[in-house]
């Protein structure tokens, strides 16, 4: 008969957690910094419009305003303030003609034209018709419009003229929130950095060389700061995007690709986003300096027809 002798404690160590590899950049959870307005911003009540928030930091529906004619100065002041605070404004059932839509946008500044997009009823109106046989562009990637320009659009006004039975939403992300939540070491790495933007990566998937070559002199590659400052609110904004940012200046390809992949992924964070389900005649008016957007492409083969006008912007700094 064998009597088991107790194992000495030194031979039976406390269990330890096994090693498990965490992929680089693979963990991104925890409390977010969710600041909707600059820290020195004084919030005031709205007296001429009704502002109905649709998200924590971004997106508000505006009610009780008539967009069909010139805005009274007091109404314009409040709409502009809401635009800066909420970054994208929604107007249900506005149902503007293309001329009214352009006139509404022009109250914020001159409009720009875009030779890469299908034209609507005038040069100022770009048409996105996903039911036509024309070459469709897709916008189902997080992006900022026209950052390949030296002066990218400051904002855009989009109206849905025909909506699919289900789907076709658009999402926006607040790039001030994206910047606020970067780790300090990443902020230090991109502080003062610039990146090159080019229209070719975003459009070569849709158009052949014969369409792109004549435009490349008009749109040479441009450099923008990786972190731009909002010219009106003073907020710092992460300003690189999947469609047009090709590389960060002064980094080798591998380092630039890895850092860009990390930075553009910040727009994917749900706490920074708002999602809008369109009805015919609805309008969205977004600050193209402060946001990225993504047009969800989940309605094929149904038609989705949208028209957009874009307000010229200034040089990012
Ligand atoms: Fe876009």
TrEMBL record:
Residues 56-308 form the TauD/TfdA-like domain. Residues 1-10 have a biased composition (Polar residues). InterPro entries: AtsK-like (IPR051323), TauD-like_sf (IPR042098), TauD/TfdA-like (IPR003819). Keywords: Dioxygenase, Iron, Metal-binding, Oxidoreductase. GO terms for biological process: sulfur compound metabolic process. GO terms for molecular function: metal ion binding; taurine dioxygenase activity. Residues 1-20 are annotated as: Disordered. It holds the Pfam family TauD. The keyword Nucleus does not apply. GO terms for cellular component: cytoplasm. Belongs to the TfdA dioxygenase family. This is TauD/TfdA family dioxygenase. It comes from Streptomyces daliensis.
